[in-house]
UniProtKB/TrEMBL annotation:
Keywords: DNA-binding, Isomerase, Topoisomerase
Biased composition (Acidic residues): 869-884, 1052-1075
Protein name according to UniProt: DNA topoisomerase (ATP-hydrolyzing)
Known EC number: 5.6.2.2
GO cellular component, one term: DNA topoisomerase type II (double strand cut, ATP-hydrolyzing) complex
Domain called Topo IIA-type catalytic: residue spans: 171-682
Recorded GO MF terms: ATP binding; DNA binding; DNA topoisomerase type II (double strand cut, ATP-hydrolyzing) activity
SUPFAM superfamilies, sorted: GyrA/ParC C-terminal domain-like, Type II DNA topoisomerase
Gene Ontology BP terms: DNA topological change
Amino acid sequence: MAHAMQAGLSFAEAGWRRQATAASSVAAAAAVPPPAAAATAPPAALTAVAALRRRYPRGPGNRADAVSAWAIPRAVGGSGTSGGSRTSGGAVVAGSSSHRVGLPSGAGAGDPRAASVVVAAARRRGGNGGGDAAVSMAEPVAERIEDTELYDETYKSYLTYAMSVIVSRAIPDVRDGLKPVHRRILYAMHELGLAHNKPFKKCARVVGEVLGKFHPHGDTAVYDSLVRMAQPFSMRAPLVDGHGNFGSLDDDPAAAMRYTECRLTRAASEALLRDLGPDTVDWQPTFDESQLEPLVLPAVVPNLLVNGSSGIAVGLASNIPPHNLGEVVSALRALIADPRVTTEQLMQHVRGPDFPTGGELVVGPELVQAYATGKGAVVVRGKARVQRLGGGGGGGHEGAAAGRGRRRTAAAAAEAATGDMEDGAASGGGGGREQIVITEMPYQVVKSDLVAAIAELIESKQLEGVSDVRDESDRTGVRVVVEVKKGHSGEAVLAQLYKSTKLQVNFNYNCMSLLRTRPRLMGLKEMLQAFLDFRCDVVQRRSSAALRSARQRLHLVEGFLRLLGEPGRLDGVVADVRGAADGAAARGALVARHGLSEEQAEAILGLTLRRLTGLEASKLEAERDELQKTISRLQDILADRTALLAVVEQEAAALAAAYPDPRRTTLVAAADVASAPSPEDLLPDRPCLLLASRRGFLRRLPDESLTAQNRNTRGKSGIRLRSGDALAGVAAASDRDTLLLISPDGRMFKTRAANVPSPSSSSSQSSAHGAAASSGASPSGASLANVLKIPQSFPVAALVPVPRGLMPPAAVRASRRGGAAGPADGAACGPADNGVGDVGSADVIPAEPAAEGVAEREPQAAAAVEAEGAGEEGAGEEGGEEVEETAVGPCLVLCSRRGMIKRLALRNRRDRAKGVPVMRLGSFGERDPKTRSADAAAGASTAAAAAGGGAAAAGAAASGGAARSDELGWAALSSSPDDVVVVVTAAGRALLFPASDLRVHGALSAGNMAIRTSARPHDHVAAMSVLPAELAPLLQGSEARAGASDGAGGGDDVDAVEGNAEEEEEEVPEAEEVEGGSSSPSPSSQPEQQPEPPAEASRGGRPVGPCLLIVTAHGIGKRIPLGQMRLGRRRQSGVLAIRVATAERARKARGSGGGDGAGSAATARGPDRVVAALAVYDGQEVVMASRNGVVVRQSVDGITVQSRMTRGTFVMQLDDGDEVVDVVVAAAPAVIAGAAAAPVAGRIGGGENRGQGQPEAAAAAAVSAGGAA
């Protein structure tokens, strides 16, 4: 159709041709026979067939065949049965049913005889020359028909349409940065005289002017374009000054054009229309050729870069961001100064886009690529800040908007006060909430849509930590407030907003523009160079026109001066003019007699009498001098390229200086932009308490769910235990901590503390005999199999919370097999890579799943008789794949129940379904015969003493003489080699030695011996913890230890003497040990039932300082000042730290009824033993947990401070058959990698006494059995 219109055919002719073309293929395919009998047809159709047959004389299936087979029956059928006339193809077609044309019999569609008959019939029917007229009109039409393929015709027509859209609608011109519609609007307003200093006019008037003269399209497109040029949030430098409602950031539509008014801005007049003239730019006729319009406006600055543009054409699109006017002009001047300047050098001037809505631009290599190639993407973010309510404002992002006035300030203050009151009522006091205030939006992002998207994320629970969002924007600026829930991090929520909403978007560069009416993708330098060439052409054409005008004026001025300067010349001119018959004669007389040109003579004839005075002569002389200077300057500009460029630079710099506008968009380096937060980052960093049972159940309690109680009180239920289950341990952590779960067989699993189900913080406080402390989740906790997503649960030996940021990131390392390097998550571990976590496939020792009986029975730690001598210890140390390495950063200190201890570098590795091995645990049966027989005896006595302990104890007794494997019992974090490791035995002996005495072992090594218990066959390790390095100077012997050598011989000798002395002191018989208990217990034989110590010693008076808190299974505890403890060496016997009672002594002490709550406690079975030892500070609180799941929180200030040789005082009331299993500091510790631990970090990881209910009883039974024998 487009081709037919180009060929000059009318619409009817083009339609006929299209149908004829389609009919040709139909006739050829179906072999439609021509009419064999007479047929009636309009003359125009017949003459057309004749013309076609003359062009295609022969050949079956040609165009003439098809047309004759289609056109004649179609024309006959369309003529009707009655006479009439109609117009077809520009000819008058007459038809009548009475006119019949008889074709020769047998004449086919391709027979020339048919064509001759048809033409003859046309001539005969036409009458009076009608047939000749039809033939004469049909022949030119037939000559213009071209044979072409449908594909080619479609391609050419679509390409013509696409180029029309590209050039005339969607793509801006690189010279003035405008599309045709914008250019026509500005030119129409310029023609209407709507300058910046003139009154406004209705937008409908401007739209009508544009439609009627220049732009033959819909009024909506014109008005929308006008509105955009008036929006300050769309244009960096608005070109139209609007008066009325022109839309908003909420995508509100502008008012109707009959209500709004407009005029040009001053910047538009000076930057685009000042040099407009017939000689400066090219002009073209309008669509109706009634007048001319400019092809381009003579822009002074690169408007395409200043205001940007976006459009979608056919097969092409353009998206160019706006920039700062001063930066663009600076880059243009740099290009003029050095044409070989690079894109990187230009970017020192144009630092990036400058959006009218402000925001933040992330600067990285993508911006350089976009400016170099014209295509790329950059990240644009809204500007927001995090502020704390009621706390004087928080930090956050730079460039926050200023205050919003008294009304907004008062409203915000009232709201903050209300919010703080609500939070105080809900949580018991204090505000501390945060809110995010968004003050600037990303470019082209609708504010209302952003608010709706945030509200939808809040409603769908996809955005954690946000309670409300509201829009407080007004005419002073943007203000969107996002309320952050109490306890959540405002920075983390803001990072999630950047990730999940359009508060952060990608701006895609596509710098497509027209250069000499051809679309071209250009970078920053190419666009500036194209504009510079255009501007030089404009200045050159303007200078040429000005030079011509100046020369013409100088010519006239010289004629005036000649008339006025020569004496008598004026009188002669006047006489000649008066004597002339008309103006032409007067002009001829002046030219002939006075030597003037035609132009000078005409100008003299137009002079008034007042111009002939002497004053006017002096003015003319001044004008002549000025014109001569102007001509000289213009000639220099036209002759010298440097002078031309200087004019361009001067005019651009003057315009930039006239409109100074600081940058609105803040540039942010990509390295300074925080990565998208993980889901854990959005969780509030609140302290919590983690409880683990022996059957593999975990529960997390909020820290505020436990309130501090008095000493020696009964707590509340922390976890509801199933039948046959018991509490294994407790750990204090934070919701964002990484939780390391270590099994008794030396496997480690990793998860987040927040992954452990937690009840709501508003739970009801229940007693120890009631329901669990909270009701938001299952009181029994969650199975480890569900938390870790593993096939089955396992007993928990140690809980180690790793503070946020302490776990090192996964590193890239080489494979052990020498393969390509890969990430630590999947590659094999190298020989020197022996940290916590994954190991190479060559080193993997399959960890057998724990048997079901292990999960239900109480682990039996035999009274291991450690073989003395370096031979056995060396054998233990050399077994496995131990690799000694220098520890950099935190380490794990692991200790088994047999007393094997090691340090392991803390590393981040890939999780495994079977766990990551961290320690190789040996078997009791692997030792020498003497040790094996002692173990068998200990096992038998354990079974005898635990006869009343249930089925699990009976099962343990059945296997008393069998060889049993060692179990991992404790784990803690050490942040420095100067930390102090505390190892305490069940009998109360404590050994403190530096962590540097422990080498950093590999993951599959067995470690070294921690404490020597060979002199006490039935004693064993009962607790292990780590003291921070800053407490080491408080210990006795720390100075000597620091300067002494690392030899173990001397240390062992000294310790042996001290240990023997204390053992002799411990062996003094006491009356309470007499069977029958007839004698009353002496004061020295029972736990310290003394009155509370003075307030200045233990209850907030004079500070006591750091102490070592030791708690036993019967709920007896005390604080020992660290100054009374001695810093020793590994593998010594230790010193006595607390006197533990035997079974009979403990029963009498509990049943005596005197002292603090002794009478209210039920009888505990078996001898007492140590279960926990940790460093505490004044004012701290500890949480004690019992085997039945009862937890109690109390201040350490209420626990008495005693010496090492005392027995302590009761600190927790226990039910019948219950005992204490673990003690932790209530507050979550804070450990900083590479620095000394905070005071709270005396004991970070749990694991002290994980399930030692029966082995101690077995040891006591063995002692009794030995005495009886």
